[in-house]
Specification:
The complex is a heterodimer of chains A (about 800) and B (about 290).
Chain A lengths: L8 H8 L11 H4 L16 E7 L5 E7 L1 H5 L3 E6 H4 L6 E3 L5 E3 L5 E2 L5 E7 L2 H10 L1 E6 L37 E8 L1 H10 L2 E12 L8 E7 L4 E6 L4 H12 L6 E4 L15 H13 L3 E4 L2 H7 L2 E13 L5 E11 L28 E9 L6 E3 L7 H19 L3 H8 L8 E2 L5 E2 L4 H12 L1 H13 L3 E10 L11 E2 L2 E2 L2 E7 L5 E5 L8 H13 L6 E5 L16 H28 L6 E4 L2 E4 L5 E3 H8 L12 E6 L8 E10 L6 E11 L6 H20 L4 E2 L5 E2 L18 E4 L17 H17 L14 H10 L5
Parallel strand pairs in A: 1-14, 12-13, 15-18, 16-17, 25-26, 32-35
Antiparallel strand pairs in A: 1-7, 2-6, 2-8, 3-7, 4-5, 9-17, 10-15, 11-12, 11-14, 15-16, 19-20, 21-31, 22-23, 24-25, 24-30, 27-28, 28-29, 31-32, 33-34
Helix pairs in contact in A: 10-18, 12-13, 14-15, 15-16, 17-18
Chain B lengths: L6 E3 L4 H11 L3 E4 L5 H6 L7 E4 L9 E3 L3 E5 L4 H5 L2 H6 L2 H6 L5 H6 L2 H7 L6 H7 L3 E6 L2 E6 H4 E3 L2 E2 L6 E8 L6 E7 L9 E10 L2 E10 L9 H7 L6 H14 L10 H22 L4
Parallel strand pairs in B: 1-3, 2-3
Antiparallel strand pairs in B: 4-5, 5-10, 6-7, 6-10, 8-9, 11-12, 12-13
The chains are: A alpha+beta (about 800), B alpha+beta (about 290).
The structure holds flavin-adenine dinucleotide.
Chain lengths: ~800, ~290
């Protein structure tokens, strides 16, 4: 029949390009040619441009807004303010965290660069001309910038609109600037364990405010078609379906009259999960003007107004015995959420999954308390390339265990070995409420130590110290919790966090699959095709994967928190299996045998013990022509997958640094990253994710910070200051892996995109602090800029 | 992030450019590489009504050896400086510095004239030109004048350049053979201005320093020329104590602002440290040490 019959089994397997193949990314053909289609590439006939008048103050009453001169500027068509949106109830919008956020400043501004008015014009230049002519009169109020003062009795009240409410969406609160209090664990037992312990350590560890800073900023094109009342919004959305539902809920437009399209998206990292004033204003302006309206953030707008991350002020404590065995963990956190609580996490989790602070360690008891507060800073608190607050948690425990090592004099690798959850303990129930699915932490660390010759490095370090030179070795053995998540405990605005995949097999045996997720650069078009390829025996090159258009894709909760592979990837495998089950029935019919006679072999069903077989390709044609009686035609299905549990990827990272004691310059000499993400779908894509994530981790550890001065001016909100490393600064990454499949995922995959960010940041910090460990230094604030490292060198007199 | 309204002019000769500058006065702005001016225009910190693009003027480009002076046309790009054999041989501090200015894209457009004329204390070329005792040729319809780099800078974005003047060339006294020179810069990343940087030239004879110049970048309102720092090594063997004294003098002269590059204290210390490193490096390159 075909050539395929002459191929060996191995050749047939290889021709599929399925799971485990380092297949080149399909999407790169357009990206590297500059032929991606991003939102700013979209140009519709008659399209207008909108942009914002923004607040120069961090905290002020708005006395007046005068648009008279602006409206005289050539090309300016409208200046929209909160007053104009109020009749439509669009001047405020609900947030993903149960709070309200101003769309356009209503009587007062709460942070610098807050949106005050939306100027709509024929082009971007005219919009900026108009913005310059809008006159806003302010009455300055005292700004509240330091979260540590937010709950003081005399603190300025930031949110007059909710000042009298005893809750703002996430439980009881006790101060007008308080957002929530969240506690997990057994406080009494934890306190008792601390009382009784031989050794306790405590450290104030801040994770500064930083920003996901995707290369493409946020933006949209909204287009209301007056002929049919349908609103189409093209935009940078990581979760297009959720956007559609929210738009419907707040505008009362029926969901069938709303189409949300995420075209190619140039990086998200959590920045593009939330809803921003620009989306609402562009939609409102399109409805009002009858023209499509485009809004695209500038770099400064992006860094200073949409979705910061972290800003967690943590105090962490460990209790241990003399052998370094951890007996209890305790953490108190002050979380700065800015002016509105627009953090994006499953709604029942005001501090995300921060209770993963047990990390990779078997800790008998623990307690966590997190308080969220308002400040006069941009709103947010998104998960920047991590599952919700997981990077903060990993940072805390990985720093604390190093401090414990120093306090007890136990080697930093050894103390981890002594505390690991052991392979036979899985599924492991942590004291703070999680059921870890699978893992083999000792093997991962042992492999890592051997790969870098850890003992040799420690010897070299000792010799260097003799000579007064500074060398640090950082170890991080992290565990993540990703793949949100089980609908029983994860939802966003009430929508369960399942995900979906629809597969259609065409008569000639090629496939289109659509998912509820949305790649922002992860390579879904490549990897999800590989899952289907293996399950259906159809070459991955013949499988098209589409996402991002709510008119065509099945409903899903989107891409963030490393959930695409754990949730939508599982739906993909299950949908493919449903198709294979139907295909088997058709195969039995065509071959005139029973299903029990058939066995699956790479790309076909074979009659057991014979040469008779039928390929998937031929079955596809039969599905449209020759089916058993009573069966429906076609070969397509949809699967909605509600994961039974989260997945728990882990890794062992080792970082080696040398520090110039005169300048504070830190050179990363070596970075070794061993990751275990369960089943590896595409090793090349995994390596790419790790390279990118480690580069972001390096950026966060070494320089990324959104800094405010005491009056609330945001400093350095441009890439001149905000640290985006180039190839020159970026260290070389060595990657390695172990494979511990996820027991509850159809193909055993756990997700990889965020591990390197979660595990990388503490590895850098640990290495830098380790360089000073012999001088009794236990902690240094991030980011480790040259100036901060030098300050320590100077204090210790090492720069003389 | 969009510039205001402006009219664009692209003269082909210096004369035409001077005529336009004369015509528009303070409403006109020269556009060279655009890598300082255009970002300012996008932020609307600069809103010139007339842009006078000098990139079509061939006469402004090129590097030539006139014996006792090296002449660099104002329109010469940093990339051309970086790859010039003449400069590599006779004035290697310029390519050494060019390699530390911004990134390849910026260097392909950014010009030496723009870097010298811009007046941003973060620009690297001014300190080097001060250390080399270069002078600038300024032309206008009224004529031509020479001004020493050491006299040119007055404050942040204020220089001796008049509204109707064009900087046409940079003239560098050809360094004597055997002069050691170095530019040392500490920055946060590629494409960043200096936390602090130091340019050093020094001449050695029989183990003694016979002449030296030291200039600093981005630790004051303009590039700085701390004479006391140079004096500290002149007449010495440039031993450790002389180097320390020079670094101390450089620090004493520094008045950096605190910004995200670091505190005043740190940036001052780095002015000292870069001075130290640049002296040591220059010394290792000097003949007769
Ligand atoms: C990302 C980035 C990083 C950078 N990093 C550095 C760095 O590390 N070090 C550094 O030194 N610079 C740096 N720069 C600035 C860069 O070197 C600029 O190219 C330079 O400052 C200006 O030169 P230009 O030719 O681009 O001039 P333009 O931007 O065109 O002009 C700058 C100013 O000089 C005036 N001007 C230009 N030429 C003349 C002339 N012939 N006569 C009279 N006036 C003139 C213009 O009117 C304008 O006011 C950086 C720029 C960017 C974008």
């Amino acid at each position: 029949m075909s050539d395929a019959q002459e191929m060996t089994l191995e050749e047939r397997e290889a021709s599929i390009g399925g799971i485990g193949t380092a297949r080149k990314r399909k999407e790169d053909a357009r990206f590297i040619r500059g032929q991606g289609n991003y939102v700013d590439d979209i140009k519709l006939p008659g399209m207008l441009h909108g942009d914002f008048v923004r607040s120069s103050h961090a905290h002020a009453l708005i006395k007046s807004i005068n648009s008279e001169e602006a409206l005289k500027v050539e090309g300016v068509l409208a200046v929209i303010t909160a007053k104009d949106l109020e009749p439509l109830s669009l001047h405020w919008m609900p947030t993903l965290a149960g709070d309200m956020a101003a769309v356009l400043a209503d009587k007062k501004v709460h942070f610098q660069n807050q949106e005050i008015a939306f100027v709509v014009a024929t082009d971007r230049y005219a919009a900026t001309d108009g913005i310059q002519k809008v006159v806003v009169e302010y009455e300055a109020l005292p700004p509240l910038i330091d979260p540590k003062t937010a709950l003081d009795d005399d603190a300025p009240i930031i949110r007059d609109d909710v000042a009298d409410n005893d809750e703002v969406g996430q439980g009881k609160r006790h101060h007008p600037n308080h957002i929530f209090e969240w506690q997990v664990g057994d406080k009494e037992a934890t306190d008792a364990a601390f009382e009784a312990a031989d050794i306790t350590i405590s450290e104030d560890i801040a994770y500064p405010r930083c920003h996901p800073s995707p290369i493409e900023t946020c933006g949209c094109v909204a287009s209301m078609d007056a002929t049919n009342g349908k609103l189409t919004v093209y935009g940078t959305f990581q979760a297009p379906h959720v956007v559609r539902t929210i738009v419907s809920l707040i505008t009362s437009i029926e969901e069938n009259k709303i189409r949300i399209v995420s075209p190619d998206v140039g990086g998200g990292f959590g920045n593009k999960v939330g809803a921003y004033p620009g989306y609402i204003c562009a939609a409102a302006a399109s409805i009002v003007t009858g023209h499509p309206v485009k809004w695209i953030e500038s770099r400064i707008d992006n860094l200073s107004t949409t979705a910061f991350a972290r800003d967690y002020h943590m105090t962490g404590e460990l209790a241990a015995d003399k052998d370094g065995k951890i007996l209890a963990v305790r953490a108190k956190v002050l979380a700065d959420h800015g002016a509105f609580n627009t953090h994006a996490q499953p709604m029942k989790w005001p501090a995300g999954f921060f209770n993963i602070i047990t990390g990779s360690y078997d800790i008998p008891v623990g307690h966590v308390k997190v308080d969220g507060v308002y400040t006069n800073k941009a709103p947010g608190g998104v998960a920047y390339r991590c599952s919700f607050r997981v990077t903060e948690a990993a940072y805390l425990i990985e720093r604390l265990i190093d401090i414990l090592a120093q306090k007890t004099g136990i080697d930093k690798a050894e103390i981890r070995m002594r505390n690991f959850v052991q392979p036979e303990q899985f599924p492991y129930n942590s004291c703070l409420g999680w059921e870890y699915d699978s893992g083999d932490y000792p093997t991962a660390l042992k492999t890592a130590l051997k790969a870098v010759d850890y003992d040799g490095l420690r010897k070299e370090q000792a010799e260097k110290r003799e000579k007064g030179e500074l060398m640090g070795i950082g170890v991080a053995t992290f565990t993540e919790i990703v793949g949100a998540g089980p609908v029983r405990n994860c939802d966003i605005v009430g929508l369960g966090m399942f995900d979906s995949c629809e597969i259609r097999v065409h008569p000639t045996g090629s496939v289109i699959a659509r998912l509820g997720t949305k790649s922002t650069g992860q390579g879904h078009e490549t990897t999800f095709a590989q899952i289907i390829a293996t399950e259906l025996g159809i070459p991955s090159d013949n499988i098209t994967v589409e996402e991002g258009d709510t008119d065509t894709a099945p409903y899903g909760l989107g891409t963030y928190g490393s959930r695409s592979t754990p949730v939508a990837g599982a739906a993909t495998a299950r949908a493919a299996r449903k198709i294979r089950a139907k295909a088997k029935k058709i195969a039995a019919h065509v071959l005139e045998v029973t299903e029990q006679d058939l066995e699956w072999e790479i790309d076909r069903f074979k009659v057991a013990g014979s040469d008779v077989s039928i390929t998937m390709k031929d079955i596809a044609m039969a599905a449209y022509s020759n089916i058993p009686e009573g069966m429906e035609h076609g070969l397509e299905t949809t699967d909605y997958y509600d994961p039974p549990n989260f997945t728990y990827p882990f890794g062992a990272y080792i970082c080696v640094v040398d520090i110039d004691r005169f300048t504070g310059d830190v050179k990363v000499r070596r970075f070794y990253a061993l990751d275990d993400c369960g089943t590896r779908i595409n090793p090349m894509v995994i390596d790419g994710q790790i390279h990118g994530g480690l580069t972001e981790a390096f950026a966060i550890a070494m320089g990324q910070e959104i800094v405010y001065d005491e009056t609330g001016n945001v400093l350095g909100a441009s890439l001149m200051d905000y640290f985006l490393p180039s190839a020159v600064e970026t260290p070389e990454w060595e990657t390695d892996f172990t494979v511990t499949p996820c027991p509850h995922h159809p193909i055993g995959a756990k997700g990889i995109g965020e591990s390197p960010n979660v595990g990388g940041v503490p590895a850098f910090s640990n290495a830098i602090v380790d360089a000073f460990a012999h001088l009794d230094v236990t902690h240094m604030p991030m980011p480790h800029t040259q100036g901060k490292v030098w300050k320590l060198l100077n204090e210790l007199g090492l720069n003389k | 992030m969009t510039p205001g309204v402006f009219e664009y002019h692209r003269p082909n000769t210096v004369e035409e450019a001077l005529a336009l500058l004369g015509q528009f006065g303070e409403d006109g702005k020269v556009l060279a590489g655009g890598h300082s001016l255009v970002p300012m225009m996008k932020l609307r910190l600069a809103e010139p009504a007339h842009l006078i693009d000098i990139n079509a003027i061939d006469g402004l480009r090129g590097i030539r050896d006139e014996g006792d002076v090296i002449v660099i046309g104002a329109g010469t790009t940093q990339a051309e400086v970086l790859t010039s054999d003449l400069l590599a041989k006779k004035c290697p501090i310029l390519p050494e510095a060019a390699a530390q200015i911004a990134d390849p894209q910026v260097r392909n457009c950014g010009t030496i004239g723009g870097n010298c004329a811009n007046g941003d204390p973060g620009n690297d070329d001014p300190a080097i030109m001060m250390a080399l005792d270069a002078s600038y040729t300024l032309q206008s319809q009224d004529g031509e004048r020479q001004i020493a780099a050491r006299e040119f800078y007055q404050g942040i974005y204020t220089t001796a350049l008049a509204d109707n003047e064009l900087l046409t060339e940079v003239r560098i006294p050809t360094p004597a053979e055997g002069v050691g020179m170095s530019y040392q810069k500490i920055k946060r990343k590629v494409g960043d201005y200096a936390i602090a940087a130091a340019a050093v030239t020094l001449s050695m004879s029989n183990g003694q320093c016979t002449d030296a110049a030291i200039a600093l970048t981005n630790v004051g309102d303009t590039a700085l020329l701390p004479l006391a720092a140079a004096d500290a090594i002149k007449g010495t063997s440039v031993d450790a104590s002389a180097v320390d004294a020079a670094a101390e003098a450089a620090m004493a002269a520094s008045e950096p602002v605190e910004d995200l590059r670091g505190t005043r204290e740190y940036r001052t210390a780095m002015a000292g440290q870069m001075t130290r490193q640049a002296i040591v490096e220059a010394l290792s390159r000097a003949a007769g040490s």
